[in-house]
Design a protein that fits this description.
Elements lengths: L21 H11 L9 H8 L3 H29 L1 H25 L2 H21 L2 H7 L4 H30 L14 H25 L14 H5 L11 H4 L3 H22 L1 H8 L1 E2 L2 E2 L3 H29 L1 H22 L4 H30 L4 H8 L1 H21 L11 H19 L12 H10 L1
Length: about 475
């Protein structure tokens, strides 16, 4: 059984099309991308456990923390054992996380939700997130930005499927819940049944991805690919840096800061998306935006997240990784200011501003593996990527904490207005400025950090 999961069993035969690999990545990333749809049932959990937004929001934050930690801890294992074994392990953890969380909801034990969705599900998130990335970079050495965009696009689009599906399933499991009524809240039992359903469905999809994934042979290269063209670019190296050495370079920590700032700014909106749009357009104590429309907004953000991961990362193949991050962070500052100061003037304007911000958020995720490949080479890029995702863990705490702490101080859920969000949004402007300055400081990695070619050649062949 274990032999079926080994890297040796999934080496592609001659003539195999690399375009068959993205569907395997999408099967995993569309499943674990459900984490971005948590705002749809957030109010239901607050009511069910009779607690605060901050305490329920911690479930999401914990999952993101575990994502980063597990990606950092198991990144080298994923590189060594291959994507199939990693995808299977991710599927088992992600699915079991839903089932344990469902038990916690049914039993009225919030700590079980933390353990299930937060810890077990978070481990599945981390391993599942990095499992196809290094494989696609190897299949697309000529277009690494496009490759990582394809790999991570599905993660951003997961909520596009999960958000409306969750609303319909909760209405199915709770006859008293009406997703078109802004004041309607689903029962805890409906959320528990939803978690069981999602856990089983996602298990099947992720195992399908593991079944069809392949890795290229050691001597494979795409037709017409000329590595010398990439070597001529200023920020692209033809050398290799190990994962253990990479974390001792200033470039790693500058890029860590860039990712942390970009994610912190975006994740706060995503985690609060559904109630946020209702609060921005509240008149006389009631919102003009229904719960169903708010769920649709979450879906729109998911589309923007997914599209940004593909469009902006592909664009980075043309303009370079450093310039595209200048756009993410610099233009992001202007957009956050506009959202904080004028976002409540028009629903169309609000959705447009939030959509572009989230497209930059998604683009940052999809571009960073290619940025790492440019700076550190392909030798252990998967393991380096895993370590860098600890920035996501930190941002997963910081982003929701900033938003939820400000909102808890302003008033109760369901009674907040647009002005209550302004301090948090302006704080995000400062965060983006820090990231912009960190990206400005990134330079090529010094030669003293490069690995001898003999070592990289040997370890690549051993893998």
């Amino acid at each position: 059984m274990l032999d079926v999961l080994s890297r040796e069993r999934i080496v592609a035969r001659p003539g195999y099309s690399r375009w068959l690999i993205p569907p395997a990545a999408l099967a995993v990333h569309l499943s674990i991308g459900q984490v971005y749809a948590t705002s749809v049932y957030k109010s239901a959990l607050v009511q069910h456990f009779d607690t605060t937004l901050t305490q329920v929001g911690f479930v999401f934050s914990l999952a993101i923390v575990m994502l980063g930690l597990s990606a950092a801890l198991f990144g080298t294992w994923v590189d060594r054992n291959g994507p199939r074994a990693a995808m299977v392990v991710a599927a088992l953890f992600w699915s079991s996380g839903f089932l344990v969380a469902a038990l916690g909801i049914s039993a009225g034990q919030l700590w079980l939700v933390y353990l299930g969705y937060g810890v077990l599900g978070g481990i599945g998130l981390g391993i599942g997130y990095i499992s196809p990335v290094s494989t696609l970079i190897k299949w697309f050495p000529d277009r690494p930005g496009l490759a990582t965009g394809m790999a991570i696009m599905g993660f951003g689009g997961g909520a596009m499927v999960a958000s409306p599906a969750s609303g319909r399933l909760m209405a199915l499991y709770d006859s008293g819940y009406d997703s078109s009524d802004p004041g309607s809240v689903a029962s805890g039992g409906a959320v528990a049944a939803l978690f069981v359903t999602l856990g089983l469905v996602y298990l099947a999809f992720m195992l399908f991805g593991a079944l069809i994934v392949r890795v290229p042979a050691d001597d494979w290269a795409p037709e017409g690919y000329d590595p010398s063209e990439k070597k001529q670019q200023k920020m692209v190296t033809d050398a290799s840096v190990s994962a253990n050495t990479a974390i001792r370079t200033p470039q790693f920590w500058l890029l860590w800061t860039v990712l942390f700032c970009n994610v912190t700014a975006g994740i706060g909106i995503l985690e609060q998306a559904s109630p946020m749009i209702q609060d921005f357009f509240r008149e006389g104590g009631s919102s003009t935006v229904s719960a169903a429309a708010a769920g649709g907004f979450v879906g729109v953000l998911s589309i923007c997240n997914m599209a940004g991961r593909f469009v902006w990362s592909s664009t980075s193949d043309k303009v370079g990784r450093k310039p595209i991050y200048m756009v993410y962070l610099g233009v992001g500052v202007a957009l956050y200011l506009a959202l904080a100061l004028g976002g409540s003037g028009s629903i169309v304007l609000f959705v447009a501003l939030a959509g572009v911000i989230i497209s930059f958020y998604g683009g940052g995720f999809a571009t960073v593996p290619a940025y790492l490949r440019d700076l550190f080479g392909t030798f252990q890029v998967g393991a380096i990527h895993g370590r860098l995702l600890t920035a996501w863990s930190a941002a997963g705490v910081a982003g929701p904490l900033i938003i939820n702490a400000f909102l808890d101080a302003q008033g109760e859920p369901g009674k907040l207005v647009s002005g209550d969000y302004r301090p948090a949004l302006l704080t995000m402007v400062g965060v983006l400025v820090v990231g912009f300055l960190a990206n400005l400081a990134i330079r090529p990695v010094a030669e003293k950090y490069h690995e001898p070619e003999t070592r990289t050649d040997k370890e690549t062949s051993d893998a």
